[in-house]
Amino acid sequence: MTAPTRPDPFGVELRDVTLSFGKDEKHPALDGLSLTVRPGTITGLLGRNGAGKTTALSLIAAMRRPDAGTVLVDGEDPFENAWTMAGTQLVRESGDTITSTKVKDSLGYYAELREHWDADLAARLVDLFEIDLRKTPESLSRGKRSALGAVIGLASRAPLTIFDEVYLGMDAPSRYAFYDALVEDYTEHPRTVVLSSHLIDEVERIFEDVVIVDRGRVLLAESVESVRGRGVSITGSAAVVEQFVDGHRVLARQRLGGTAQVTLFGALDDAQRAEATAAGLELGAVPLQDLFVHLTRGEQP
Amino acid sequence: MTENLAGQAVPVPREAQRAAARRAAEQRSLRTAAWSMSVGTWQIGVWFWAIVLIIAGIIGYVEVRTDILDGSVIDGVVSGSAKFFLFVMGIITPLASIAVHVAAGGTRRSLIRSTWCTAVVLGLTFALVAAALGYVEWLVFRAQGWSPELDRAQLYADGGQVGTAFLVQLFFCSVYWLAGASIGMGYYRLGVWGGTFAIVPFLLPVVLVELAFQSGYFGRPFAQAVGLSDAQVLTAVIGGLVALVAAAFAFHLVTRSVAIAPVTS
């Protein structure tokens, strides 16, 4: 008996996907959304509340069907598809568990169904997050339930693993322990990871690609480097900075005494960079959060 | 990779690999869900049997002491209530399983099939226990010189007809479980109002199996009310099979494309 061969990481493609809840067709949850997730990457899915992130992820995980459009996971329609469903793990907030029985029963269920389930990793993470296996999921605190979801997502070793706001209720040490465990396991066992989060500052360091969703549509889908290149931060003497940024689109301003830091939307050309350097200004990368706030405030790039 | 007759490695086509993986995944999820639902129901079922046996014992003791014992206690109190217990568990169990099942990579299709399998497993095991208890009671009654006859059962006269008693309980338990499962899933899919309206069609298999077997508190008066004559085993089994298929199909219809809401607690 040999261990089952691990499938290659799954890619995802959504083309012109539309979905409305109930009869509210004027405000669809997804409004012609198209996006691609490259196999073998960690992709951040960002968006404001109600932007359509959770709905898009539930379509990818075959939790529901779209009203129109195409959803492809590893090149196949995922709905009731035993191949793609067995290879996709969606963790919604605290994870889907059997709430009325012990935590170990839910983990046992996942272990039975998930062909590549890593019981050792699950046990280590349960210890790390101090989850009591004898309790029922509904008796755990919000943070522990979220940690349980993180355990399920990581131990599943699914070719496509999706974490939808799995950090809710987790304290900072637990969140960082989760991020570290995710990166470590991803490095050892490459797969496709999609991470939806509002804590952009915390997670942007682990993203390779970023998709920003707003009002059911994709505003931006690029590599993190490319996204960061869409803006620049300028730090220096306040007067010099203000003079330099005049005429540019300013995303954010910070001032401390005589020093200012301004975030601009749009890349600087070589001449502008040389000018800034000559003026004693320091150029830096733009925090993803600033770009996200700018893009989802109603303005378009 | 596989090996040919010469021992050389031959690549397995991608589609063949995926087809094999699909089959394996379906079988794994069917087996896991059926086992989980059957064991989960039996874990509570043990308490059910213990409690109804205690109640039957108390009733029997009182009837003997007051000299009003006029037939089987087991048949009414124990066997008669098993189907209602399974009806309630049928509402709860697949509903509690579907979100974790799909989140763990199982299809709705495998959950539907596992629910069908569970219906048969629970029907067989509960019927076996009910028939065995009825038989033990029949032996005790005979030994004590008490009348073991049943006043409500119609297909069998007493617990000594253990095969027929088993058959009756098998169909009742399986159909009631599936009808409960359809009703629970109806609420999950259609919401409060839609689920309530759907109760009537989902109960039709229950009506059919009660009419076919004409046993217990409801079946016989019900059948007499609609003018049916005494049941025969063959026609009862045919009616039971139709009810079973109808209940299974109803559960398939309501579950096959249901949207999976997140588990909240």
Automatic annotation (TrEMBL), chain A:
Top-level taxonomic group: Bacteria
SUPFAM superfamilies: P-loop containing nucleoside triphosphate hydrolases
Transmembrane segments: none
Coiled coil location: none
SMART domains associated with the record: AAA
Molecular function GO labels: ATP binding; ATP hydrolysis activity
Domain ABC transporter: 12-240
Keywords: ATP-binding, Nucleotide-binding
Pfam families reported in the protein's UniProt record: ABC_tran
UniProt keyword Nucleotide-binding, yes or no: yes
Name of this protein: ABC transporter ATP-binding protein
Organism: Oerskovia douganii
UniProtKB/TrEMBL annotation, chain B:
Transmembrane spans: 46-64, 84-104, 116-141, 161-179, 191-213, 233-254
Protein species of origin: Oerskovia douganii
Protein's UniProt name: Uncharacterized protein
Keyword Transmembrane belongs to the record: yes
Lineage: Bacteria, Bacillati, Actinomycetota, Actinomycetes, Micrococcales
Keywords (A to Z) from UniProt: Membrane, Transmembrane, Transmembrane helix
